[in-house]
């Protein structure tokens, strides 16, 4: 009997020891809510196939919108139990339906249909005039009649949701609206979509953005500041990058172009991720502490002062920061109240505002710049398993905007992982001899801050359905296993640091 007890004790110790050798992150990954969600049936029906094209019209005459059907919603982000109002215009009048999809991996399909609202009858809502705000500043907002309303069900998992608007009968047309479902749960990763930047560049209905005065494109280069309202559809995105003009993204902001490949990859890999809007980061600083890692994605140019301060506090409290983005934290904005008194329904540039992105990220934020991404620190743990040597490179990964020197001097252990000179769109050397830099440093609590330094980092992580390839860069569709491994190394190390604490 004593021998049996001894044997069981030894076996138990062996099992516990073996279990202890399995990374805690791996144990948690197997049972998180995102893994469960992605076992549900997926579909690629979320992809637009019937966007009306006006290829014979110059962009400035109306390419940015599709009047056949377009819409917007009452919230940038929303929690289960709250009600989302949907506003839709059809011109000419038409019957239509709304299909809402949660975006993720779903066996490679990229989305899951969560509800359908039909039939609905649409009418032309037209365009409101500019609504004055503070004299010279203006905000473009719509005051359309509510078309539908849904209460967000408790079983809708946090994520990015696309509403697909579809007309039929006499003519067929499609468009998106977009929103985030957020929650209060603890998670390994908190992914923030870059929706303030989407709004800043939203030129709906025609040259009406934070950059443009009426009939004066790019007026933001002057001292005056203009505003961008959230109560309007997203125009087809365009900011001077010609191949970014893709009608099949109509109504989705910049999400499908620069952010969805990361979402698709993270959920494929089984990461425990929850999603927020930039408005959430602005409003709820303590909420950032429920994550081990804050993930910044894509083209995240505009931040509020409150958002910046909240994320600095999160870093200082031990949350790691992963800037899988370019041109981030470049401009300071403030949130505006709508004409009917609802807070946080518009955004305006703060003239003369300046956020210290170098202190936060480790590098400065810049506009247009292209380059190969060249390894300079192959012995760093971020490169484990990549096989990269000094001088090895990923072709054309840096673009269309980037981060680079001057680098932070107050983070003494900052490591430059990759660097090199940038060129313009046409491969010509930068007139200001600028260069990019991918960096990482250890913050005071032992957490990490990683700066990828390019908007296109996520473009080589995956090629989901509806994937949009940047101009002249066909090899992106094949992805790059080295960047996937670096991203995994960085995120896993950030998560494991928090688990040890």
Could you explain how this protein is built, in words?
It is a single chain. With 501 residues, the protein is α/β, with parallel strands linked by helices. It has one domain. Helices cover 19% and strands 29% of the residues. It is built from 9 helices and 25 strands. The protein has helices spanning 2-21, 24-29, 33-37, 195-200, 255-269, 278-283, 305-316, 357-361, 481-500, and strands at residues 70-73, 77-79, 83-89, 94-103, 111-122, 131-133, 137-139, 148-151, 159-167, 174-182, 187-192, 227-229, 273-276, 291-299, 302-304, 320-326, 331-336, 346-349, 364-368, 371-374, 393-398, 401-404, 415-421, 435-442, 448-451. The strands form 7 sheets. It has a 7-stranded mixed sheet with strand order 13-11-14-16-25-24-23, with helices on both faces. A 5-stranded mixed sheet has the order 2-10-9-4-5. It is globular. The protein starts with a helix and ends with a helix.
Show the helix and strand layout.
Elements: H1 2-21, H2 24-29, H3 33-37, E1 70-73, E2 77-79, E3 83-89, E4 94-103, E5 111-122, E6 131-133, E7 137-139, E8 148-151, E9 159-167, E10 174-182, E11 187-192, H4 195-200, E12 227-229, H5 255-269, E13 273-276, H6 278-283, E14 291-299, E15 302-304, H7 305-316, E16 320-326, E17 331-336, E18 346-349, H8 357-361, E19 364-368, E20 371-374, E21 393-398, E22 401-404, E23 415-421, E24 435-442, E25 448-451, H9 481-500
Parallel strand pairs: 2-10, 11-13, 11-14, 14-16, 15-17, 16-25
Antiparallel strand pairs: 1-3, 3-8, 4-5, 4-9, 6-7, 9-10, 12-18, 17-18, 19-22, 20-21, 23-24, 24-25
